Amino acid sequence: MFTGLIQTVGKIKRVNKQQHHITLTVSVEDTDRLKGFKVGDSMAINGVCLTATTVEKDCFSVDVMPVTFQKTTFSQMKEGTLVNLERAMSPNDRFEGHIVSGHVDQTTRLIQKMKYENSLKLTFYYPPELKGEIVPQGSIAVNGTSLTVDDVKPGTFAVALIPHSLENTNFDRLVKGDYVNLETDVVGKYVKSLLRTTIHLNEEGHHA
């Protein structure tokens, strides 16, 4: 499990595509973030939970299945791409973000990027597949970063980033048209599923 609080930004060092999987190697300038990190440990890379297959002092590698590669922004990554990194949460850690599983629901594109007072407002296309899962003041993970939804309009939603978030993520590199990984709030998913089940049962009872 993750919290969506990005710990550092890494850089794609190598993308090795093979027949049944893709290997990503990520370099980390802040090597202290890899202390104690070992083969078999989990790392969220731009919000995607992956398992380390090799670990060195300043870099690590993970294997990505083709379906994950195609479903996420990994398909657009190349050497030098900056990625948000968060190690799996320890039982002793403070829980300050929101529950992030590391399983990306959809990708979406940036529609607008504008300064808003001392923050940066990012507006994204609202994928219809996520209808009802993105709500004003709700939580959402964008490239693995726990953010609060600023507003929702027909076909779009927006988030606002404070200076700290900008300094510690890869969002300052985003430009209009870029794609990001989305993971909606797990609580919202359960509520949505429960409502669907309730409606279905009511309809069955009505027709019985």
Automatic annotation (TrEMBL):
Domain of life: Bacteria
Keywords recorded for this protein, A-Z: Repeat, Riboflavin biosynthesis, Transferase
Extent of the Lumazine-binding repeats: 1-98, 99-195
Molecular-function annotations in GO: riboflavin synthase activity
Record keyword Repeat present: yes
Native organism: Sporolactobacillus inulinus CASD
Gene Ontology BP term (one): riboflavin biosynthetic process
Record domain Lumazine-binding: where: 1-98, 99-195
EC number(s) on file: 2.5.1.9
Name of the featured protein: Riboflavin synthase
Chain's role: Catalyzes the dismutation of two molecules of 6,7-dimethyl-8-ribityllumazine, resulting in the formation of riboflavin and 5-amino-6-(D-ribitylamino)uracil.
SUPFAM superfamilies, sorted: Riboflavin synthase domain-like
